[in-house]
C-alpha cells in the first residue's frame, strides 16, 4: 500500500465524535476525567449482575422485597446502585397469573443502573413495536411459552421511569444462598422475555 | 461488586461495538451531569432522531442506535448553542489533517493538523 506510513483516515462517525469531544473539552463543558470515568463505569462496572443481586435478595428477604416493590429506587440504592439521570426505578413482580415485559417504544430507555446497557434487539424497531402489539409472539421467539391463562403486562419505559421485572423464583431452590440464586437470574428474565433459569443451570 | 463470582454475563458480548459509540454515549451523560440539558430533553431529541431515521428507510435493527444517538447529540449541542455547524466543520477538517500528518501507529494529536 502506498500510504501505509500514514494513519488510516477515520470514519465520518469517529470524526464527528472526536470533533464534538475536543470542542466541548476545550470549552470546559466536559471534564475529560469525568468522561473517562463514565465510560469505564458502563463498560466494566455495571451490568446484569447488579440486577441479579437485587432479584436474589428479593427472593430471600421478604422485607427487602416489600421495599423493592414499594420504592425500588431507594431499595436498589441501599445496595449501591444509583441512577445517574435521576430516573425512578419501578419493579414489576411476576406471579403465577401475571407475566411482565419491559420495552421502551420511543427510544430504548433502560434501567442501566441494574442491567448495564441494553442488547441490540431491545433497541430494534421490531421489538419496540411488537412487544406492545403481540407480546405473546415475541415471548415465544425467546422460547418463552406461557400458559393461556397467564396475563402479560407490558411496561413502556420513559425518561423518568425505568422498569425491572422480578421473575418468579424457580422451584427446588429452598435454602439456596443469595449468591447461588443470583446465577439463575439472567438479563433477559429481568426484561421479561424469559423466565429465571432452571436449577440445572447451576452446578449443585 | 465482586461478591458473586459467576455473575450472569451479557451474551451479546461488548456493550459497545466501536470506541466512538462509547465516547458518544459518555459525552451525553457528561453534559447532562453538568446540567446542560435535562434527561427528558435528551430522550425527546433522541426519539425524534430514531423516528426520522425509520421514516427515511432505516430498518432500525438496533445496530444503528448509536448513529441516531450521535445525531441527536449534535442537534442538542447546536440547539443549546454549545457549538455551531461551522465550528464543528472546521474541527472535523482539522482532525482529518491531523490523521494525515500522523505516522501509522502513533497517537493522534490535534496539533499535528498544523504541522
Question: How would you explain this protein's 3D organization?
Answer:
Chain A has 204 residues and is α/β, with parallel strands linked by helices. Chain A folds into two domains: 33 residues, no CATH class; 156 residues, Nitrile Hydratase, Chain A, CATH 3.90.330. Chain A is built from eleven helices and four strands. With 115 residues, chain B is mainly alpha-helical. Helix content of chain B is 56%, strand content 0%. Chain B starts with 18 loop residues before the first helix and ends in a 14-residue tail after the last helix. At the A-B interface, helix 1, helix 2, helix 3, helix 7 and helix 8 of A face helix 1, helix 2, helix 3 and helix 4 of B.
Descriptors for this entry?
heterodimer; A: 204 residues; alpha/beta; Nitrile Hydratase, Chain A; 2 domains; two-stranded parallel ribbon; 11 helices; 45% helix; globular; B: 115 residues; mainly alpha; 56% helix; 0% strand; disordered N terminus
Amino acid at each position: 500500500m502506498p500510504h501505509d506510513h500514514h494513519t488510516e483516515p477515520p470514519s465520518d462517525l469517529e470524526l464527528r465524535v472526536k470533533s464534538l469531544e475536543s470542542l466541548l473539552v476545550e470549552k470546559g463543558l466536559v471534564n475529560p476525567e469525568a468522561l473517562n470515568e463514565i465510560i469505564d463505569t458502563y463498560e466494566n462496572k455495571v451490568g446484569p449482575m447488579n440486577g441479579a443481586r437485587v432479584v436474589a435478595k428479593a427472593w430471600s428477604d421478604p422485607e427487602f422485597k416489600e421495599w423493592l416493590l414499594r420504592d425500588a429506587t431507594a431499595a436498589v440504592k441501599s445496595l449501591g446502585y444509583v441512577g445517574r439521570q435521576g430516573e425512578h426505578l419501578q419493579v414489576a413482580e411476576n406471579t403465577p397469573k401475571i407475566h411482565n415485559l419491559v420495552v421502551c417504544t420511543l427510544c430504548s430507555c433502560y434501567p442501566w443502573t441494574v442491567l448495564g446497557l441494553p442488547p441490540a434487539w431491545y433497541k430494534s424497531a421490531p421489538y419496540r413495536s411488537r412487544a406492545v402489539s403481540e407480546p405473546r409472539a415475541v415471548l415465544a421467539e425467546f422460547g418463552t411459552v406461557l400458559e393461556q391463562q397467564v396475563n402479560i403486562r407490558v411496561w413502556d419505559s420513559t425518561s423518568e421511569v425505568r422498569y425491572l421485572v422480578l421473575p418468579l423464583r424457580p422451584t427446588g431452590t429452598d435454602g439456596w444462598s443469595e449468591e447461588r440464586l443470583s446465577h439463575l437470574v439472567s438479563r433477559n428474565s429481568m426484561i421479561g422475555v424469559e423466565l429465571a433459569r432452571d436449577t440445572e443451570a447451576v452446578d449443585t | 461488586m465482586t461478591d458473586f463470582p459467576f455473575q450472569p454475563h451479557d451474551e451479546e458480548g461488548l456493550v459497545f461495538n466501536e470506541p466512538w459509540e462509547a465516547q458518544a454515549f459518555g459525552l451525553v451523560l457528561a453534559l447532562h451531569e453538568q446540567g446542560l440539558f435535562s434527561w427528558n430533553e435528551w430522550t425527546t431529541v433522541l426519539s425524534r432522531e430514531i423516528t426520522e431515521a425509520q421514516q427515511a428507510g432505516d430498518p432500525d435493527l438496533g445496530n444503528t442506535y448509536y448513529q441516531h444517538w450521535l445525531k441527536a447529540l449534535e442537534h442538542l449541542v447546536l440547539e443549546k448553542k454549545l457549538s455551531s455547524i461551522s465550528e464543528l466543520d472546521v474541527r472535523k477538517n482539522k482532525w482529518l489533517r491531523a490523521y494525515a500528518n500522523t505516522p501509522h501507529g502513533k497517537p493522534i494529536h490535534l496539533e499535528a493538523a498544523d504541522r
